[in-house]
Amino acid sequence: MGFTTLINIHELKTVSGVWFLPIVSVIVTASAGSIVADVLPEGPAKISIIVSYMMMGAGLSIIFFQMSIYYARLAFLKIPPAKLIISVFLPLGPCAQASFGVLHLAMSINKLRTDLGQSFFAPSVISEDEIYIMDYGILGASALLSLALWGLGFFWFALALFVVADLLLVSPCPFNLGWWGTTFPLGVFGLTTMQLGQVLDSGSFKVLSVVITLAVIVIWLAMSVATLVPVFQGKLYVPRANQSFYDTSVGDTDVAPTTTGHERMYTYDQCF
């Protein structure tokens, strides 16, 4: 995404929640690494945890930059058009996934000691008597950080609900395949809510996780019906009559190009 910014001209009005998709995969991979570490032997488990923390740091750093740009877009310009309005839910995804991953990585470090009898840190750095305190200290700090990231995700979730509700009051919002973008953020939001409920022993979080999970199931079923019906009707993949394309040789056209030229759509003078 950073390289794309260097070779293309971007304006604030073109910023959308889709920008989060390439980076959220890094956070998802880091979270998955913590789960894989739970079933690995000592050596590979430590490597998996270390790499996962590195990826989590890289992903979160870039996500925070992108959130600043996206929030500025929402604050200074109009909300996204109806076709892209569901993208306002996408910032919830990295927040919820990072909340889950940070806490589960700490649990993996603790499990490394309880199940394998090994410390995540070298014996020359920390004594055996201090390992117990260190592991639970990391778990406690990670739980607070996870809770803070959950709160950030809840902010984006509430903002997305208000933005979509505001649009529905003044404009129709026809279904498109982009609506599937709500399932992952809400799904992982429910997952991290459930994990926080278990770690904090909070009945409120446990009940909220059930509510979110049921909402995800209902949304998934609704998206499936809304997708399959036009598929069987032969309407989903048929381009509209006013569909416009861009051909590098003629510019905007109603005819889909049959080939793609090698020339770029910009000059180097436009980059500076």
From TrEMBL:
Keywords carried by this UniProt record: Cell membrane, Membrane, Transmembrane, Transmembrane helix, Transport
Topological category with respect to the lipid bilayer: Multi-pass membrane protein
Primary localisation category: membrane
The keyword Transmembrane helix is assigned to this record: yes
Domain of life the protein comes from: Eukaryota
GO cellular component, one term: plasma membrane
Location(s), subcellular: Cell membrane
Pfam families: SLAC1
GO molecular function, one term: sulfite transmembrane transporter activity
This protein's record includes keyword Acetylation: no
TM stretches of this protein: 20-40, 47-72, 84-106, 143-165, 177-196, 208-232
Stored InterPro entries: SLAC1/Mae1/Ssu1/TehA, Sulfite_efflux_TDT, Voltage-dep_anion_channel_sf
Similarity comment: Belongs to the tellurite-resistance/dicarboxylate transporter (TDT) family.
Family annotation (PANTHER family): PTHR31686, SULFITE EFFLUX PUMP SSU1
Protein name: Sulfite efflux pump SSU1
UniProt organism field: Malassezia equina
